Amino acid sequence: MAREAPAPIQARRENYVAKLASFFAAATPVRIPVRLTRLGTGDVFSESTVIEFATPREVLFACAAPLEFADRIHLKNSDGSLDVEATVVAVQYHEEKTAVAARFTRDVANWIVKP
């Protein structure tokens, strides 16, 4: 009897972020590495992650820290072309990671996903 090998960690992560993305009709797959920082709390954290889906106003990604609805975050890519604040609008907890959707707090002029 053949057995399937476990899915790679990356594929599993994308799977649960994809499930959250299914609630956003305009979500498009992207791969944008960013530095994520939570703002405005005494419990400051920062980590590297990858934006896996995006809409003209939202980004979806996985992170290790448990973000919550309405948390404010800062996202910045390595070349600084994306340097923006966003507010968490949806979360789904999955084992040790959290799938997060965050909405930009302002228009992002050079954003790659256009309406």
Overview of the molecule:
- The protein has a single domain (9-104), classed as Beta Barrel (Thrombin, subunit H).
- β2 (46-54) and β3 (58-63) form a beta hairpin.
- It has 1 helix and 6 strands, in the order αββββββ.
- 11% of the residues lie in helices and 45% in strands.
- Strands 1-2-3-6-5-4 form a 6-stranded antiparallel β-barrel.
- It has one helix at 9-21, and strands at 28-39, 46-54, 58-63, 72-76, 83-94, 97-104.
- It is mainly beta and 115 residues long.
- Mean pLDDT is 86; it is low at 1-14.
Q: Give the spatial strand order of the biggest sheet.
A: 1-2-3-6-5-4
CATH superfamily membership, which one? Answer: predicted glycosyltransferase like domains
| Secondary-structure element pattern, one letter each | HEEEEEE
What's the tally of helices?
Answer: 1
Q: Please give the largest β-sheet.
A: 6 strands, antiparallel, barrel
Number of domains: 1
- According to CATH, the fold-level topology is Thrombin, subunit H
Rg estimate, integer Å: 14 Å
